UniProtKB/TrEMBL annotation, chain A:
SUPFAM superfamilies: MetI-like (SSF161098). One of its GO terms (cellular component) is ATP-binding cassette (ABC) transporter complex. Pfam families: BPD_transp_1. One of its GO terms (biological process) is amino acid transport. It is found in: Cell inner membrane; Cell membrane. This is ABC transporter permease. NCBIfam families: HEQRo_perm_3TM. Keywords: Cell inner membrane, Cell membrane, Membrane, Transmembrane, Transmembrane helix, Transport. The chain crosses the membrane at residues 28-48, 60-81, 200-221. The lineage of its organism: Bacteria, Pseudomonadati, Pseudomonadota, Alphaproteobacteria, Hyphomicrobiales. It is a multi-pass membrane protein.
Automatic annotation (TrEMBL), chain B:
Keywords: Signal. It comes from the Bacteria. The keyword Endoplasmic reticulum does not apply. The lineage of its organism: Bacteria, Pseudomonadati, Pseudomonadota, Alphaproteobacteria, Hyphomicrobiales. Residues 1-25 form the signal peptide. It comes from Lichenibacterium minor. The keyword Glycosyltransferase does not apply. Residues 29-257 form the Solute-binding protein family 3/N-terminal domain. This is Transporter substrate-binding domain-containing protein.
Length: 231, 266
């Protein structure tokens, strides 16, 4: 079939380009997920805090980043910030000059806002009996949090977290709008050169494989955690 | 087995389809694709309305050809795929007539000339001589002849930085992320007048002439084999060229003449 031949041809001829695009996509996903998750726990705890000095800024942050499109955030960080001379003469300019750090900042902050909500939900869903049991055996709040509440909350939130990671994978495609040549960028460049959508089909197929791998990885993690509990 | 009832039903359906088809052919709307981020040729004003040199020209052409036209705004690099997917019927978006594109679409006669030229900071030393671009980053728009020139002719010399729109390319040149941009000298003229000049930017070197890459001016692209539409546009072009409409439009945007050979000038 001519169509399939075209797609196969696009994939094989542009293999090095797709490979480097895949590398950038994975880097964007891995770094933003790691940073996002690391920030998610303090954000969730701050949102749950009874101290307004913690809960108000954390809630404002979550609303700001979940209330604006990711594309707008990337554009503001990449194109918007350098419009101020202060930014261009500051120490962070060498970092912000490159599109990769700009995209990583946007994706990480976005991921933190969304997963912060997921972790918060997980913490709230920890059964009251388990909290009480923790304090009954004499654990103080910090210890109970570390040994009982957070591990349980993490397991409860895991399916929702896997969803966030899959969504994040697709969100990284917006990096192509700030001159990063990720998977989507390679597909688009190819499509622009050949006037067909073949490059985009190849990119789409790779995203499906990645999504499958992520879902499978989380399934294994869930099974492992459940095994540890029932052992 | 076909029953007579079914047969007549089919017949009726075919007839109805044929009728609507005929009716549609008569009042067919020509959908013209354009990338409305290319001031002063095609852009959206503060109210979101399409404005510009080619919007006015396109409307004049449609009026001269007595066609009902409708504008469709899309990214430049998606225009040819959209044309071949029948989402649009023509492209009027400063698209250069190149051999590469002629493999995918047909073009009308030349609508405008389109010299390509570098723009950089005044005094940067950058000219049209490739030696002056060694190690430099050049901002270009995706899917353009300019992208092709930098990726192919300046391979190993300058690094292309590819943007979805020329507006974004200008923005990043301003922000200091690229050393120069390569685009149509016409759109650069508009940008230099509005923002660039005040920020110390200027044309760098002479206009580039490499017909193998830059082609022969711009034209209106139509689907391969759609000669009827191409002919209508060609006739209309000659009309607006000879009755002075084209010149009026041209002069209201540029102090120089960019009218192509397709418009028989007075």
């Amino acid at each position: 079939m001519a169509f399939l031949d075209g797609v196969a041809d696009a994939a094989s001829r542009q293999f090095p380009a797709f490979l480097s695009g895949l590398g950038i996509t994975i880097e964007l996903l891995a770094v933003s997920t790691a940073v996002g998750l690391a920030l998610a726990v303090p954000i969730a705890l701050a949102r749950l805090s009874t101290n307004p000095l913690l809960s108000v800024p954390a809630t404002a942050y979550a609303y700001l980043f979940r209330g604006t499109p990711l594309l707008v955030q990337i554009f503001i960080i990449y194109y918007g910030l350098p419009q101020f001379d202060v930014v261009r003469t500051s120490a962070v300019w060498p970092l912000l000059r490159d599109p990769l750090p700009c995209a990583l900042i946007a994706f990480s902050l976005n991921m933190a806002a969304y997963t912060g909500e997921v972790v918060r939900g997980g913490i709230l869903a920890v059964p009251a009996g388990e909290r009480e049991a923790a304090s009954a055996v004499g654990m103080n709040r910090a210890l109970a949090l570390r040994r009982v509440i957070l591990p349980r909350a993490f397991r409860i939130a895991l399916p929702a977290l896997s969803n966030e990671v899959v969504l994040q994978l697709k969100a990284t495609s917006l990096a192509s709008t700030v001159t990063l040549i990720d998977l989507t960028g390679v597909g688009r460049r190819l499509a622009a050169k050949t006037y067909t959508a073949e490059g985009l089909y190849v990119a789409g197929a790779v995203y499906i494989v990645l999504t499958f791998a992520i879902a499978r990885g989380f399934r294994l993690l869930e099974a492992r955690l459940d095994g540890a509990r029932t052992r | 087995m076909k029953t007579p009832v079914l047969n007549s039903l089919t017949l009726g359906l075919v007839a109805a389809l044929a009728l609507t088809g005929a009716a549609r052919a008569q009042e067919k709307t020509v959908r013209i694709g354009t990338e409305a981020a290319y001031a002063p040729f095609e852009y959206k004003d503060d109210k979101g309305e399409l404005k510009g040199y080619e919007i006015q020209l396109g409307n004049a052409l449609c009026a001269a050809a007595k066609m009902k036209c409708e504008w469709v705004n899309a990214d430049f690099d998606s225009l040819i795929p959209a044309l071949n997917a029948h989402k649009i019927d023509a492209i009027l978006s400063q698209m250069s007539i190149t051999d590469d594109r002629k493999k995918a679409v047909d073009f009308t006669n030349q609508v405008t000339i389109a010299p390509a030229r570098f723009v950089a900071k005044d005094g940067s030393g950058i000219t049209d001589d490739p030696a002056t671009l060694k190690g430099k980053t050049v901002a270009v728009q995706s899917g353009t002849t300019h992208e092709k020139y930098v990726t192919e002719k300046l391979a190993g010399i300058a690094t292309p930085k590819v943007y979805q729109s020329q507006d974004e390319a200008f923005l990043d040149v301003e922000n200091g992320r690229a050393d120069a941009t390569l685009a149509d000298a016409t759109i650069e003229y508009d940008w230099l007048q509005k923002t660039g000049k005040a920020k110390g930017f200027a044309y760098a070197g002479k206009p580039l002439t490499d017909p193998a890459i830059f082609g022969d001016g711009t034209g209106i692209a139509v689907r391969k084999g759609d000669t009827a539409l191409a002919d209508s546009f060609n006739k209309a072009l000659a009309t607006v060229g000879s009755d002075g409409q084209f010149k009026t439009i041209n002069d209201s945007y540029f102090p120089f003449d960019i009218m192509g050979s397709g418009a028989a000038k007075k």
